[in-house]
Amino acid sequence: MLIAILTGFIFAILLFFGGKRLVINKLALLPTLIPLGLFIYFIRFIGDISNQNFIYKTYEWIPSLGVNLSFTLDGLSLLFTLLITGIGTLVFAYTSSYLKGHPYLDRFYAYLSVFMAAMLGLVLSDNLISIFVFWELTSISSFFLIGFNNDSEASRKSALTALGITGVGGLLLLAGGLVLGNISGSFSIAEMLGQKDLIQGHEHYILAACLIFGAAFTKSAQFPFHFWLPGAMKAPTPVSTYLHSATMVKAGIYLLFRLSPLMGDTQFWNTTLMIVGGITMLYAAFHSIFRTDMKGILAYTTISALGILVFLIGLGTQESYLAAGVFIIVHALYKATFFMMTGVVDHQAKTRNVTELAGLRKVMLPVAIAGILAAISNAGIPPSVGFVGKDLIYEGTFHFEHSAILLTILAVLTNVFISYAGYVAGIKPFVGKLPEKFEKVKFPSIFLWLPPVLLGSLGFIFGLFPVLIQDALVKPILWSIGQDAAEVHLKLWHGFTPILGLSALTIGAGILLYFLLKPSQKLEHSITRFEKISPKSIMEGVNTVFMMFSAFWTRTFQNGYLRNYVSTIILFLIMLMGFTLIGGTTYHIDYASFAKLTIYEIVILFVLVFAIGLIVFAKSRLAAVVATGIMGYSICLLFVFYSAPDLAMTQFAIDTLTVILFVLVLYRLPKYLKLSDFKVRIRDGVLSIAFGALITILALEVLAQPVNSEISDFYAKNSYLLAHGKNVVNVILVDFRGADTMVEISVLAISAIGVFGLLKLRLKSVERYQK
Amino acid sequence: MEFLLAIITGLLYAAGLYMMLRRSLVKLIIGLIIISNGANLLIFLLGRITKGHPPIIPKGSEVFTEIYADPVPQALILTAIVISFGLQSFAIILIKRAYQAVKTDDLDEMNTIEEDIR
C-alpha cells in the first residue's frame, strides 16, 4: 500500500528528468496509466471491504515520537481512494487534450501526481501526524496548480490566498492532533477510538474540537473561510475538476467523518457543524444564482454542497451519515462532469460567460449531453443518483429529533438554488439559438468529451441501480464510522411519502426559477456590491495591515545602522537584567576597606576617570588617542598594584603599539567632526550610563558570591611539580593551555598578514571614490 | 577597593558604549578599545584582587606557602589583550584604507555611498 501511495511522488520525480518528452513525442496520454493502475489496484479491495475485512498496514517511521506510517483501508478510505484514482484517471486523460502542447505540461502532470499521492496518503493514513503531512502536501500542490498560469497576477494572488487559508488550516490540524495525542497518548485514530470517553470528558476537548474544525472548515471552504475556493477557479479546469470539487476540498469532510465517531455526538460538535454547515450551504447557494461565469457558479454550488455535507455530519444520525456518504458520491459524479463540460466549452468557445453562451448543442452534442446529465443529477430529478441523494438528505433533516421543519426548509431552499444554478451552468449554454460567433466552434477531441459523458452516465447507472453502490461503498462507509448499516437499502422509488413531495417541490421551484430569472451582468453586479463587507475583503484588509506592520517593524529594527542595532541590543539587555535586579542587590559596601587605600591607588583612579572623560569629550582626535593611551597605562599600573606583573608588561607593550599605530594613520584622516546633535548625545549618554551602572551592579553582585578556586589551586599546586615553571601565569599559557596559545598566535599572524596586505594594497582607479 | 574598581569598570563600559554609538569610524574603534579594557578589568576584578602577591612561586620552594593572586583570570586577560590588539591594529589600518577609498569616516555616508562604488 505504501508503494501505491508513493507511486505519484516517484512519477513526479521521474517527470523531472524525462518530462519534456511527453510534450515533444505526444505521449501526453501516458501519465493516465498511473491513476488508472491505482484505480484497478484499489477497486480489487471492494470484495474485502464489503465483507467488513478492513485492511491495516503499519510501517515504522518515527517510532520514538509515536509517529508511524499506519494505513487503514476501510469503507470511508476506499470511497475516497476510488474517487481520487477514478476521477484522477479521467482528469489525467482530459488534461492530455486540454493542455495539448503546453510547454509546461510535464510540470502540470508532476503537480497532479504529487497531489494525487498526497491525497491518497491523507485518506489512507491512520496517524494524525502523517495525515497532517499529507494534508499540507495537498495544500502545496494545490498552490502550484492554482498558480499554474504564473504569468497572470490574479492567478498568483489566488494561489497565495488558497495556500494561506488552507496552510493555516493545516497548522491547526497539527495543533489539534497534538492536543488529541496528548490526551490519549497516541496519534493513531484507531487507538484513540478506544479512549473516546477520556477525550470527550477532557478539559481540552473543546480546544481540540475547535482546532479540528479550523482545519476542516478552511480546507472544505466553509463560511467564513470559503472565499479562497472561487479564487482557486483561476486554475486550469482539470485542476478545478479534480482538486476543487471532487477530492481536495472534501479532505475537511473526510476529517470530520473520520473523527466523528471519536469526537462527535456531543452538543458542541453537532451544533457547531450544523450552524456552520447550514450557513455555508444557504449562503453559497444563494450567491451562486447571481454569477455569470460558469466556473463561478460551480464554485459556489461546490461550497454549498460542502456546506450540506458538514451540516449532515453535524446532524449526527445514522440517516444523516448515510445521506452524507451517498451525497459525496453523487456530488463528485455530477460536479466533476460539470467542470469538465465547462472546460470543454471554455476551450472551444473561449468564453465561460453564461449570458453569452447558447445553442452549443449544435456544435458539440456529446458535451451538451454531459451538461444536461449533470444538471439533472444536480437537480435531483429521477432516475439520476442525485434523486437518491437528495431524498436521503431530506430524510435526514425531516426525521431529525428537533426543529425538523426548520432544517428541512433550509435544505429545500438550498437545493432549489443549487438546482437553478445547475440548470444555468449545465443546460443554458446548450439550448436556444446558436449565436453567429459560435458557429465556427470546432468539435472537441474525444478525450475532452468522453470523460464528462462517462461520469454523467455513471450518475444515471447508479441512479437506476443504486444497489451497485449500496453494498460496495455505502454500507462500508457507515461501518467504518461505527454505524449500523444492516437496514440500508438504497432505492429510487420509495412510494408516495412527504419526502417525495419535497423532492418534487425542489425540482419544480428550481425550474420555475430558471424561467423567471435570467442570469445577467446587472444581477451579478447587485451582489458584488456587497463584497466590501465579505470575509474576503476583511481578510484582505487584515493582510494589508499585517504587511504594513511588518514593513514598519523591519524599517525600525533592520535599518542598516550599526549603532541602532547596538542600542537595541543593549536596551533590551538593560531591561531584561534590570527586571531581574529590581528585587534588590545583596552587596554591602565595606567602608572600612576605604581606609586601607594607598595614595597611589587613589591617584591612579583619578587619572583613569580623567582619561575616560577626556576620551569622551575631546574636541581633537589626537587628544582622544592620547587619552586612550593614558587609560591603558593607568590600567597597566592597576595590574602592577594587584599582583599581575605579566599583565602589566603585556598591556604596556600593546598600548604603546596601539597609540603608535593610531598616530601613524591619524594625519590621513579628515577632521574630527561632531556629527550628532545634542539630543542624540543625551539619549546615547543615558543609555551608556545605564549600561555602565548595570555592569557595576553585576560585578558587585558577583563579588558578593563565594569564590571557587579549585582550578587555580590545581594550577598553583602543579605548576612547578608538573611543568617545572615558577611563574604560574606563564606556565598556564605555554604549557597547560599551550595549544590555545598557539592558535592565538596564528590569529595574530593572520591579523598581521591582513594589516600588511591592506598597507600594500594599491587601489585601482575605479575603486577610488570620486565626488 | 573592589567597590571603586567596579565603578571604574562600569565607567569604562559606559564610555566605550557611548563612543561606539558615534557616527565617526575612529570613535567606534576607540569605543571598542575602551570596552575591551573594561572587559579585562571586569574579569580581573571578578577573580578577586590581591595586593603584592603575584602568582609566582617563591625561590627555594615548590609550591605556594602563602596567599597568591589567582593566575587563571590573569592568563585569560593576557590572551584577551593580545587578541584585542590583533583586532585593533587590523581595524585601524582598515579605517585608513576605507578613508582612502571613500574619503569619509562617517558611517552613515559609508552606508549610502555603496552604490556609487563599482
From TrEMBL, chain A:
Subcellular location: Cell membrane; Membrane
Domain NADH-Ubiquinone oxidoreductase (complex I) chain 5 N-terminal: 62-109
Main localization (coarse): membrane
TM region(s), chain numbering: 28-47, 77-96, 108-125, 131-148, 160-185, 205-229, 269-290, 297-315, 321-342, 363-385, 405-425, 446-469, 499-517, 565-585, 597-617, 622-642, 648-666, 686-704, 745-763
Entry membrane topology: Multi-pass membrane protein
Keywords: Antiport, Cell membrane, Ion transport, Membrane, Transmembrane, Transmembrane helix, Transport
Residue span, NADH:quinone oxidoreductase/Mrp antiporter transmembrane domain: 125-413
Pfam families to which the protein is assigned, alphabetical: MbhD (PF13244), MbhE (PF20501), Proton_antipo_M (PF00361), Proton_antipo_N (PF00662)
Highest taxon in the source lineage: Bacteria
Keyword Ion transport annotated: yes
Domain MrpA C-terminal/MbhD: 607-671
MrpA C-terminal/MbhE domain: residues covered: 681-760
Protein name: Monovalent cation/H+ antiporter subunit A
Organism (species): Mesonia aestuariivivens
TrEMBL record, chain B:
Mode of membrane association: Multi-pass membrane protein
Subcellular localization: Cell membrane
Keyword Transmembrane helix: yes
Keywords: Cell membrane, Membrane, Transmembrane, Transmembrane helix
Key word Transferase present: no
UniProt xrefs under InterPro entries: CPA3_antiporter_subunitC (IPR050601), NUOK/Mnh_C1-like (IPR039428)
Transmembrane intervals: 6-21, 28-49, 75-95
Family recorded in the similarity comment: Belongs to the CPA3 antiporters (TC 2.A.63) subunit C family.
Database matches in NCBIfam families: PRK09094.1, PRK12659.1
Protein name (database record): Na+/H+ antiporter subunit C
